[in-house]
């Protein structure tokens, strides 16, 4: 009995001890949970505080929608460096720059320069597209311009009478005439030209269809070589096919005209230049291949050697836009030095009746004979012949 009582007592003691142990472990678990909760809350609070700090920093940060005012003056300074004002050699920074007004002032300055350049171009353009030399008063304007542009040429202008450009033959007749006179002395060319006009009926009858109707045999009978007959027919065919026409030739600019006419067999650069000066009266034509003009430039500027054609543009640039008139005086200058030349111009296009009248008039030996410049090239032995 005593053992059972003792065993029961131990059992009760263990039973009592177990609830006590369980009761003691519960606060420990609660404390652990509370500490975990406290830690989590602390972390959350720190996160919220950091987020709040970030938001406050962002809200306190200045907005950058516009560039800082200190960077605005860089634009006008750059403009001033690119377009400096000669009167102000130093750039003075401004406390409160106004880029709009500065840009406006620079724009006004630039606009002023553009206006000045535009005015200069406006003054030059009418000169380049100057009127025909046959227009009233144009030759006088050209002479005044050349006197001011070249003092050496001014002396020649005072020595010789002014040129005249009064030929109004049709372009087809003038081109036909130039082909017939190629590489011939004036008398021989005039004789052939007279017979050619007789075949056509008159100078007014020199038309593309009339020339095409003439056979090579008929042309050979009046002294026209077979090669020149081919040249005449090629010119007439280009008129008949519409490649060329009198109205188109008159309205073409110099470069286009040069390109189109050199397409005709037997018409070279020298022929085109002569045609442009003496038939179309173009004011700014420089025959760079013409021996007479090159020789005149050599004498005028006292050059040691005859200038090459490639040098002529640079040497005669000051004559623009009246190089045709200046070339005319180069021919006169060479003639005044005693170079022999024939009596009447070929390419000036004077009428056949005028040729005959001038041939019949006696020449006084004491009076210097003023010759039309283009004809002098036949006896000067021009380096570039008509058909070249």
UniProtKB/TrEMBL annotation:
Cellular component terms (Gene Ontology): nucleus; protein-DNA complex
**Matching SUPFAM superfamilies, A to Z?**
DNA-glycosylase
Name of the protein this chain belongs to: HhH-GPD domain-containing protein
Q: Which family does it belong to?
A: Belongs to the alkylbase DNA glycosidase AlkA family.
Pfam families (alphabetical): HhH-GPD
The GO terms this record gives for MF are: alkylated DNA binding; DNA-3-methyladenine glycosylase activity; DNA-7-methylguanine glycosylase activity
Q: Does the keyword DNA damage apply?
A: yes
UniProt KW Kinase keyword:
no
Q: Which InterPro entries match?
A: Alkylbase_DNA_Glycosylase/TA, DNA_glycosylase, HhH-GPD_domain
Q: Which organism is it from?
A: Acacia crassicarpa (northern wattle)
């Amino acid at each position: 009995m005593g053992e059972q009582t003792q065993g029961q007592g131990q059992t009760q003691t263990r039973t009592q001890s177990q609830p006590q142990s369980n009761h003691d472990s519960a606060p420990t678990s609660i404390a652990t949970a509370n500490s975990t909760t406290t830690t989590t809350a602390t972390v959350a609070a720190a996160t919220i505080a950091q987020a709040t700090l970030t938001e406050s920093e962002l809200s306190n940060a200045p907005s950058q929608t516009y560039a800082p005012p200190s960077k605005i003056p860089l634009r006008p300074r750059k403009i001033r460096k690119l377009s400096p004002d000669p009167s102000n050699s130093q750039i003075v920074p401004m406390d409160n720059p106004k880029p709009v007004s500065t840009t406006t002032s620079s724009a006004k300055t630039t606009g002023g320069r553009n206006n000045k350049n535009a005015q200069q171009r406006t003054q030059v353009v009418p000169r380049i597209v100057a009127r025909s030399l046959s227009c009233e008063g144009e030759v006088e304007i050209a002479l005044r311009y050349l006197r001011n542009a070249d003092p050496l040429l001014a002396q020649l202008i005072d020595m010789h009478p002014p040129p005249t450009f009064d030929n109004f033959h049709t372009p087809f007749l003038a081109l036909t005439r130039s082909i017939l006179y190629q590489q011939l002395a004036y008398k021989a060319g005039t004789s052939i030209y007279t017979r050619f006009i007789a075949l056509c009926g008159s100078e007014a009858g020199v038309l593309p269809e009339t020339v095409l109707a003439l056979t090579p045999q008929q042309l050979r009978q009046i002294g026209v070589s077979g090669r020149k007959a081919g040249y005449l027919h090629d010119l007439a065919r280009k008129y008949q096919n519409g490649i060329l026409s009198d109205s188109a030739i008159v309205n073409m600019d110099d470069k286009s005209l040069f390109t189109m006419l050199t397409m005709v067999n037997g018409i070279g650069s020298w022929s085109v230049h002569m045609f442009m000066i003496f038939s179309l009266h173009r004011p700014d034509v420089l025959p760079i291949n013409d021996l007479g003009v090159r020789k005149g430039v050599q004498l005028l500027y006292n050059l040691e050697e005859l200038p090459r054609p490639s040098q002529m543009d640079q040497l005669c640039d000051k004559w623009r836009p009246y190089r045709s008139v200046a070339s005319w005086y180069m021919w006169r200058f060479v003639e005044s030095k005693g170079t022999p030349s024939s009596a009447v111009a070929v390419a000036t296009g004077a009428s056949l009746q005028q040729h005959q009248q001038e041939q019949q008039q006696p020449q006084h030996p004491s009076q210097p004979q003023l010759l039309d410049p283009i004809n002098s090239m036949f006896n000067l032995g021009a380096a570039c012949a008509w058909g070249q």
